[in-house]
C-alpha cells in the first residue's frame, strides 16, 4: 500500500481552502511534493475538469475528487480531514473527509482495482468513523491499507429471492463513481430483499453479466454518464436511466422506479432484440427531445471530425512553411517522383513541405465523410457509420460540402435507426446490423443525395462560398462581431459550439484563392481566447475585486486562454455571470471584428498562440486578442466596481475602508 499513500500525503484537521478548487490544488501539491506527479497546475486542472462534469461530493461528509492525468507518474492517494468542512456538491452538506485519487493516463488494471476498492470502502460507516478519529497520518495509511485488501467472496443470493434486477454503472473516469454507485444500489436493493446484480464498466475492467442473469431480471438500471457497452444485451427490458451520481445519492429511489417499471407494460424499454448485436438504440430509451437528439448527433459528428481537421490543417500549414505557398502546384509530382535520395530542385525543405502538404490534404479529405459518418453514428450507433460515411463521400463528389455531409449523415442515421426497428425473422437478425441496415441505409441516403438533394445543396454551398469569399468591409466585420459574441456567450456551451462547428466545418473549403473560411476560423479562435485572458488580466489589475480562489484561477486562465480553451473563464462566470459574460462578449466581439477586418487567417482549428505558424497576419492576430482582452478586463472591473451593491474585498482590506465604500445598484 505504500506505493499508493504515505503519511506525507495525509493532512489532518487542515484548513486548506474554502472551496473545492483550493482543496484540490493543495492535495495536488502534496502529490507533486512526494515526486508522484510532475506539476501541480496540470494535475489540478485535470481534476477540476473532472469536477466540472459531475460534483464528487457524496452523502456522509465525503468527497472523492479524482482524475487521470498525464502529470501523474504513479497511482496515488492523498487524504485531507478538513476543519472546517468544504462543500463538494453533496446533497447533505459539506465534506470533512476528502480523498484525492490521482491516476496516470496509462494506469494498469491492478492499481485501478485498488483505487476503486477504496472508493467502495467509503460507503462503510465504520471506515469513515475510523478516519475521523485517526490521530496520525500513519494511522490513516493503515486504515486505507486494510480497506483496499481483497474483499471476501460474497455469498450467492438465496434461491428464494423473489425479485431480480440488473444494473450497469459507468462514469467518464471510471475510477470512483462507477463503483460507489454499484455498491449503493446493491445495498439499497438488499434492504428491500431484492437480488441486484451490477456490471461496473470502469477503468479496472468490466466483467459482463451472464446472459442467464440478464434474462432472469425484471428490469435494468443504467446509472451512467457515458454510453453503455453492449447495450443490446438488455434489449426488451424495462429500463431506468440516470446519471451515475444519482445511483449514489438516490439508490433506493432508483430501485423503486425499476420495480415500478417492471410492473408497467407501458414503461420504457431497451430497444432491439438480444440477437441484434449492434442494433440501433431507440431514442425513447433516453429522456431527450428531438432537438436534443439532433444537437447531440451533430456535436458527435463534429467531435470525431476535429482530429482530421486539426492534423490536416496543421500539416498543410507546415507544408506552406517548409515549401512555400506554391507547393500546392507541385506537391503531387514531387511526392510521387522524388524521394530522400532524389530530392527536387528546391532541396530537402521543398520535399518535406510537399510530403506534409499532401498528408494534410488527404487528411482534410476525410472531413465531410467523417462528419457525416459520426452524425449517423450518433443517431443509430454502429449500423449508421457505413451509410453516413458513404453519404459524406457522395456529398464530396457532388460538391455539396459540409452542408451535404450534415444532410447525408442525418439521412443515413435516421434510415438506419428505423430499419433497425423493423421486426424480422430470427434467422435474419444476425444479418441486420452487418449487411441489411448498412446496405439499405446507404442506398436510401446516398440515392437521395444523388437523385434529389445533392444538386440543390451543392448550389447552396457554392453560393455560401461565393458570399463568404466576397465579404469585405462592413459585412465581414459584422460576421466577426456575431461570431465573437457567440464564442463568449456561454464559454464552451451550445452557442459557443455552434460558432466553432461552423468555422471548423468550413475549414476544408479554404484555399489560397478562397481564404474566407480561414478568416472565420481565425476570428472564432481569437474571440474564444479573450474571456479567460481577460479574467486573468483583471485579477492582476484589481485583485481586491476577486476572491482568493478567483485570483488563483486567474493564474491558470493565462495558459488556458493562450491555448484557446474558453472554459477557463467559467469559474468567473459561474460566480458573477451578469458582469463577466457581458464583459467577455464585448471584448470577444471587438476581437472577432478586428480579425475579419484585417484579413487574419488560421489553417488550424485549435491551439491558440501555439499554432502561430498556421496563422496568417500573426501580428494583427495578437493585436486583436490583446485589444479584446484589455476591453473585457476593464469592462468587468468597471462592472464589479460600480454595478454592485457591495464590492468584494479581500481579507486584508481595512474595515474602515470597506465601510466607506458607497453602495451602488
UniProtKB/TrEMBL annotation:
It is found in: Cell inner membrane. Keywords: Cell membrane, Kinase, Membrane, Phosphoprotein, Phosphotransferase system, Sugar transport, Transferase, Transmembrane, Transmembrane helix, Transport. The keyword Nucleotide-binding does not apply. GO terms for molecular function: carbohydrate:proton symporter activity; kinase activity; protein-N(PI)-phosphohistidine-fructose phosphotransferase system transporter activity; protein-phosphocysteine-sugar phosphotransferase activity. It comes from the Bacteria. Its main location: membrane. Residues 294-649 form the PTS EIIC type-2 domain. One of its GO terms (cellular component) is plasma membrane. Residues 271-292 are annotated as: Disordered. PROSITE patterns: PTS_EIIA_TYPE_2, PTS_EIIB_TYPE_2, PTS_EIIC_TYPE_2. Residues 165-260 form the PTS EIIB type-2 domain. GO terms for biological process: phosphoenolpyruvate-dependent sugar phosphotransferase system. NCBIfam families: FRU, PTS_IIC_fructo. This is PTS system D-fructose-specific IIA component (F1P-forming) (Frc family) /PTS system D-fructose-specific IIB component (F1P-forming) (Frc family) /PTS system D-fructose-specific IIC component (F1P-f...
